[in-house]
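Project standup — Tuesday

K.O.: blocked on the structure for the chain from last sprint. Re-posting the sequence here as requested.
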Amino acid sequence: MTISLDFEKNIIEIEQKLHELRHLSRAGDLNIAQEIGHLEEKLKKQLSQIYTHLTPWQKVQVSRHPERPHCVDFIRELIDDFVELSGDRKFAEDQALIGGIGRFRGQSVIVLGTEKGHDTETRIKHNFGMAKPEGYRKAQRLMELANHFRLPVLTFVDTAGAHPAKEAEERGQAEAIARCIETLLMLEVPVIATITGEGGSGGAIALAVANEVLMLEHAIYSVVSPEGCASILWRSADRKQDAATAQKLTAQDLYGFGVIDKIIQEPIGGAQRSPLSAITKAGDVIEESLNKYIALSGTDVCTHRRNKFLEIGNIN
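H.V.: unblocked you, prediction finished:
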C-alpha cells in the first residue's frame, strides 16, 4: 500500500481490505482467492476511473508523491556502470543535482538529474531537490564534457525549483541557471529531458532545453508552483487549486501547446504504485527519442534544438 492522497479514500479502503485478505490467505486460514480477485478487479476499475479524470491540482499532488520513482531510481534501473562526477571545480559539490557518465542500453551517455530524496535523511542530504548555483555549474561542466566526447545527454527533472535562499542568490543563482540554458542551446550532441515529477521554474528548464522533452503522464511543469502563483495573484495560497487550473501545467496541456514532445503513460494509479514499470516504460520512450538524433550531425542536432524552442508559442 502506498501513502494515500486526499482523493483516494475509496482506493485506500479497498487496498487495506486486500492487504488483510492476502495476509489471511498466506496464513492458510481461509480459501479466499475468489474474494481477492474480485477486490483486485474493483481496485483496478477505481484507480482507472479516478486517475483518468484527475484535476490539475490532483495531478500536482500525484507529481509530489514521495513514492514516485526519483532520479536515483532511474539511474539505478536504466544506466549501467554509472560513475558519478562531483563538484563544479569552483566552489563545492551540490548533491541536489546528480551527474555522471554511464551506458544507457549500450550507448555511452552523460546523465544529469535533480534528486529530492526518499526519506528525511536523504531529503536533507539532497536539499529536497533544490539545486544551488554550484549544482548548475556542475551540470554545465558535465554538459561541456559531453560535447567534448560526443556523448548524448539524458536529464531527469524533479524539482520544486532552484534553492531560493539568500546565499544562493549571492553566489549567482540566476547566472548559473542562465549559463546552463545557454550551454544546452550550444551542444552538438542529442539531449533528451524527462520531467518525472515536478518541473518547477528555472530550476527545471536549466536541465530541460532538449531536442525532445518528455513528461510522465502525471508530472507537472510550470514557471512557479500553484501555491506561489496563488500568493502572487490572489495574495492567498488557499487559491492554489484555481492557480493549478489556470497555469495549464499538466502534461496533457503542455503537449497541446507544443511545449513538450511526448507523454509517457504511467501504470494505472500512478508511477508511485509501480515504480519499476514506470521506469521501464520511460526507458523505452527515451531510447526511441534518442535514436532519432544519434545519426545526425552535430550542427543538425544543435539547429533542431534551437529552432524547437524558437517556435514554441509561434501562432503563425
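K.O.: great, moving the ticket to review. The mean pLDDT is 91. The longest strand covers residues 191-200.
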